[in-house]
């Protein structure tokens, strides 16, 4: 891996996978791993789902790309499906989460601009947030480790601390405030849920001051938390929403959803994307959303989420020296560790279970939404074995 022709931007685990089925992946050496990472909440329906394979193959036989110079029927159909099942009335398609956030920020600023409020450019964000790696989205995330060495931080992003409600209120009341941008549950930040009451209060504050509410549901969207979108749990709606990861089930796609009013100023020529809404991405995205919206699918996600959470709670009880708490919603579950999460991550990998690290010393469990009970039990057993081995090590080390 050293000496490869690739940028060194990723600290990769020494594993190469060549095939997958359901929640399982196989390495080039034929070793089998249980995939509760799902490509960071991307493979929403697991690997090689028959309906997604069929949707992709069928579209691949017909037409790959024409660009947004023309009408793309399947793009309209996916937009209509998303709108029929959410707050949204308009959709802009792109190719990633960061691009969906960029579109959301541009939409919010342009909304105020078109109303003559040209000073309303500030986007209010929260510490611990993650919104992507483009120049604007690292400014939105506000984390020094991602900003360092990349020139001036893009202007117009104001960050307040996660729990400082007074600071947020003050920022929203400022005449330069354009929008609040928040993840209903911080994913990369360590599966930190935003308090439901506070989310409702933020909605009210935005309304009171003519500020837009943008939700970053890049990770929480498309059934991940047991509802189509996580904000449904709080019974509020945003003005603008960014979604990506799970939407394509593994095919790169992102989308910015908005109300008619919020999107009104995004007229012809104001924004664009060569690949956004490409027929291949749209065909797969449509199949994913149709599966997630099928009767009983989200009930099953919630039932399985309870199985995972109960299982993890039992592991926390057994190894209080290694783990602290379990948190999250649906199948976006965080296990807060006492020992370094990286150590636990490699210990479970030795047991052939794939998880994802997050901030705040948390390990994320992100199984496919259609994971089987049997695979959940297998994952919990792997975790238990890994914890047992580490716990024993600790006892032996302390005893020496
Ligand atoms: C992953 C993620 C992004 C960035 O998505 P990319 O597709 O990597 O650009 C933005 N926001 C949240 C909440 C994410 O989890």
From TrEMBL:
It comes from the Bacteria. Its main location: cytoplasm. SUPFAM superfamilies: PLP-dependent transferases. GO terms for cellular component: cytoplasm. Binds 1 pyridoxal phosphate per subunit. Its EC number is 2.6.1.11. The modification N6-(pyridoxal phosphate)lysine is found at residue 245. Pyridoxal 5'-phosphate binds at residues 97-98, 130, 216-219, 274. Pathway: Amino-acid biosynthesis; L-arginine biosynthesis; N(2)-acetyl-L-ornithine from L-glutamate: step 4/4. The keyword Cell wall biogenesis/degradation does not apply. GO terms for biological process: L-arginine biosynthetic process. It is found in: Cytoplasm. Homodimer. May also have succinyldiaminopimelate aminotransferase activity, thus carrying out the corresponding step in lysine biosynthesis. Belongs to the class-III pyridoxal-phosphate-dependent aminotransferase family. ArgD subfamily. This is Acetylornithine aminotransferase. It comes from Notoacmeibacter marinus. The lineage of its organism: Bacteria, Pseudomonadati, Pseudomonadota, Alphaproteobacteria, Hyphomicrobiales. The gene is argD.
């Amino acid at each position: 891996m050293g000496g490869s022709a690739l940028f060194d931007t990723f600290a990769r685990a020494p594993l190469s996978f060549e095939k997958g089925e359901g929640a399982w992946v196989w390495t080039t050496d034929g070793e089998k791993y249980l995939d509760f990472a799902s490509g960071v909440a991307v493979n929403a329906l697991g690997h090689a789902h028959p309906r997604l394979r069929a949707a992709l193959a069928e579209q691949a036989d017909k037409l790959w790309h024409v660009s947004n110079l023309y009408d793309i029927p399947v793009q309209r159909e996916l937009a209509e499906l998303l709108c029929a099942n959410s707050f949204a009335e308009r959709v802009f398609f792109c190719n990633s989460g960061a691009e969906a956030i960029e579109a959301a920020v541009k939409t919010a600023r342009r909304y105020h601009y078109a109303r003559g409020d040209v000073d309303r450019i500030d986007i209010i964000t929260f510490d611990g947030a993650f919104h992507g790696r483009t120049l604007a989205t690292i400014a939105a995330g506000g984390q020094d480790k991602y900003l360092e060495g990349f020139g001036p931080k893009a202007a117009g992003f104001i960050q307040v601390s996660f729990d400082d409600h007074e600071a947020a209120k003050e920022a929203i009341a400022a005449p330069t405030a354009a929008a609040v941008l928040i993840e209903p549950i911080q994913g990369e930040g360590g599966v930190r849920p935003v308090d439901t009451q506070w989310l409702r209060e933020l909605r009210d504050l935005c309304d009171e001051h003519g500020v837009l509410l943008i939700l970053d549901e890049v990770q929480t969207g498309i059934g991940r938390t047991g509802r189509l979108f996580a904000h449904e749990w709080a019974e509020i709606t945003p003005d603008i929403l960014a979604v990506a990861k799970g939407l394509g089930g593994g095919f790169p796609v992102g989308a910015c959803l908005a109300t008619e009013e919020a999107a009104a100023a995004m007229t012809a020529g104001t924004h664009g994307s060569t690949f956004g809404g490409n027929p291949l991405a749209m065909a797969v995205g449509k199949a994913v959303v149709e599966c997630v919206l099928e009767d009983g699918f989200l009930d099953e996600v919630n039932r399985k989420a309870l199985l995972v959470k109960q299982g993890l709670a039992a592991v926390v009880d057994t190894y209080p020296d290694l783990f602290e708490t379990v948190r999250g919603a649906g199948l976006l579950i965080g296990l807060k560790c006492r020992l370094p999460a990286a150590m636990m991550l490699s210990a479970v990998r030795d047991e052939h279970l794939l998880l994802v690290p997050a901030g705040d010393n948390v390990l994320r469990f992100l199984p496919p939404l259609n994971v089987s009970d049997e695979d959940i039990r297998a994952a919990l057993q792997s975790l238990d074995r890994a914890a047992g081995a580490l716990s024993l090590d600790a006892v032996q080390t302390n005893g020496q």
